[in-house]
Amino acid sequence: MSLELSDPDASRPFIEAANPTHPSLLDPTHQLDALFGVINIPNVFWIDEEGVIVRPPEPGWPPSDHYPEWLRGMLDERDAAAQARADEVEADDPALAAKIRGGQDKAKYVAALRDWAEKGSDSEYAMSPEQVLAASQDRPVGKSEGAAHFELANHLWRAGNHDAAIAHFNEAHRLQPENWTYKRQAWSLVGNEAAGGGEMGRFNQWPAPGQEDDWPFEGDFMTESGATPAGDYYPATI
Amino acid sequence: MISETLDISAADFHAGTGWEIKPEGACKGEVCVPLPDGYSAEHAAERLGMAVVRDDASGLVAVGPESLTGRALVTAEAPEVVLPDLDGNEFHLSSLRGKKVVVVAWAPY
């Protein structure tokens, strides 16, 4: 399910390239965030044959041998840089080093998924309903308020009222700072416009050099993701 | 959910939030929350911990998701999700009952 508020053509090239045999759907209002507690991409959750959630949303990258060559190289490089950074801070700040190393274990995740596919409720990775609820995102009322602001922002942007939308995006980001789909959606809309669209336009999620004063958000992807250790961005849950 | 007014019918509240208004209260899966004052969207939102945010310029009102338990999920029973595919055909998540389902949230950004 694609969490993108723009029209279907924004998601189309990716879906057509993947040419999946499974249903591939569009979620322009980020219903998955409100209904299930999705906060980042990729987030993955499991539902059994009876319609019962057996794992709530969690980081679900496959191992890098499933990626195209160019992406594999990029991500492997990033992992190597993170390991080097963890080694560097280990002596002074072991807690930070652990957080940097604490990102999702991609191979383990896919093995767990295969285990559940084979064993169903006998799989050690299938949670009880109580465990599922407890492992879902925390949600004090402030996060409900953040979601309401995001929904207004989403609606107003699609209606062409971008200034009003940006004010609500900023409120959503302030109230749900851990929600990366709320942030990256907003940053990518503005970054894509600034870049004049194009194949990679939506991956511009920070101000261009010299245009920092025109950037309408408190944060941007380059700054925030750089300051977020892997263990916080894609925490290991398996 | 987005609305032009907080005067939301029970049917629209159900469609917009997933909470169905029944004699025992507002219900989702096996969870029911009593509504001692009867149904109004304002009362139900308050009882369910749903934030109500108004945009004065447009007159729109947004009702956030429930927060009554402090967790994103109040029941492990998967809510219905109805979303379109690339061609605009609506797909019901519940149509996959009887199969294991893995839902992947992704985005083109």
Biggest interface: A-B, 79 and 52 residues
**Integer average pLDDT of chain A:** 95
> What would you report as the Rg of chain A, rounded to the nearest angstrom?
19 Å
Physical arrangement of strands within the biggest beta sheet of chain A: 1-2
Can you give the helix content of chain B as a percent range? Answer: 10-25%
How would you classify the quaternary structure? heterodimer
**Biggest sheet descriptor of chain B:** 3 strands, antiparallel
Number of separate strands of chain B: 9
Distance between the termini of chain B: 24 Å
| Unreliable segments of 5+ consecutive residues of chain B | none
- Sheet-strand content of chain B, in percent, reads 25-35%
Q: Would you tell me the structural class of the helices and strands of chain A?
A: mainly alpha
Fold topology:
The complex is a heterodimer of chains A (238) and B (109).
Chain A: H1 12-18, H2 31-36, E1 43-47, E2 53-59, H3 69-89, H4 94-101, H5 106-119, H6 129-135, H7 141-158, H8 162-175, H9 180-195, H10 221-226, H11 230-233
Antiparallel strand pairs in A: 1-2
Helix pairs in contact in A: 3-4, 7-8
Chain B: E1 2-3, H1 10-17, E2 20-22, E3 25-28, E4 31-33, H2 41-48, E5 52-55, E6 60-63, E7 82-84, E8 90-92, E9 101-105
Antiparallel strand pairs in B: 1-6, 2-3, 3-4, 5-6, 7-8
Walkthrough of the structure:
Chain A has 238 residues and is mainly alpha-helical. Chain A is 51% helix and 5% strand. Chain A has 11 helices and 2 strands. Chain A starts with 11 loop residues before the first helix and ends in a 5-residue tail after the last helix. The model of chain A has no long low-confidence stretch (mean pLDDT 95). Chain B has 2 helices and 9 strands; from the N terminus they run βαβββαβββββ. In chain B, the strands form 3 sheets. A 3-stranded antiparallel β-sheet of chain B has the order 1-6-5, with no helix packed on it. The radius of gyration of chain B is 16 Å and the shape is globular. The chains are: A mainly alpha (238), B alpha+beta (109). At the A-B interface, helix 1, helix 2, strand 1, strand 2 and helix 5 of A face strand 5, strand 6 and strand 9 of B. Strand 1 of chain A pairs antiparallel with strand 9 of chain B, so a sheet runs across the interface.
